[in-house]
Amino acid sequence: MKGAKWIAIWPTAMVCLGITACTRTPPCKLEETRLGPVDEQRIDTVISPDGKRIAYVALRDGKLLVVVDGREGPEYDAIDKGTPVFSSDGKRVAYTAQKGGKWLVVVDGQEGAA
Known about the structure:
elongated; single chain; about 20% helix; 5-stranded antiparallel beta sheet; about 110 residues; alpha+beta
């Protein structure tokens, strides 16, 4: 009878050990960085393709502005739908905006010609 108990316990013990070995994950390092306060009236949030950056359009006092990685850009009368957009590597961001009735392109925070 002693051997029969061992045979019944052995598969259960191996399954438990296997499950434990499979559920262990290697340690990883996580870092959190506060980018600043988030406006309550957000429109069109976009995350870069590499997942490292974030941009969104915010409404403040009737004006629109783009916030990229917590840094606020200038205020505009309108910001084109579907923008901002990140480059494929996530390093650059661009959007189209209206100021004083004229449309312009803003790339990395620098306004182009109207």
